Amino acid sequence: MKGVFGNPVKKSEHKMKRTAIGKVKKTGSGRRGRKPSKIDQKAKLERSRQSARECRARKKVRYQQLEELVMEKEKDILKLRDELETYRKWCKLIDEGVLPPEIKNIIRLAEISSAEKANKHTSSHHKSEDSHNASHSQRRHVHWE
């Protein structure tokens, strides 16, 4: 059998091709190394199947988490809608000149809270003056003795 340049070609060189420069190029599958055995292919296939099972399991867990999150957000939306409806009713009553009992309670609690804060502030102010006066008078007594 004759090659590209008229040289005899050996059987093992059938997959080789000479380029115009004279270099030799392989024309086979382009893969290097040994061919994988059937056992390797079976192991690779099993690893692939296991990986796919794990991927599906992770996907299932993720979808469950997302569904729980959606349900939680839907509950929050319902609560907010109820709250909005309450505020709309209050506004309607106020427009009619009626102060809703809930708002009266809120105002009453705010007044009590501000009164307590004012009492704490004044009582702590008086206590600090009393302690200052007491220590000052003690010093005076010490001075006179």
Task: Describe the overall structure.
This protein is mainly α. It has two helices and two strands. Strand 1 and strand 2 form a beta hairpin.
Q: Note poorly predicted spans.
A: 139-145
Largest sheet: 2 strands, antiparallel
Q: What is the CA-atom radius of gyration, in angstroms?
A: 45 Å
Q: What is the averaged pLDDT score?
A: 79
List how many beta strands DSSP finds: 2
Structural class: mainly alpha
Report the total helices.
2
Strand content: under 5%
The secondary-structure element order is EEHH
Distance between the termini: 135 Å
Helix content: over 70%
Spatially, the strands of the biggest sheet line up as: 1-2
Shape: rod-shaped
Would you summarize the structure shown here?
This protein is mostly helical. It has helices at residues 38-95, 101-144, and strands at residues 16-18, 24-26. Strand 1 and strand 2 (24-26) form a beta hairpin.
Write the layout of secondary structure elements.
Layout: E1 16-18, E2 24-26, H1 38-95, H2 101-144
Antiparallel strand pairs: 1-2
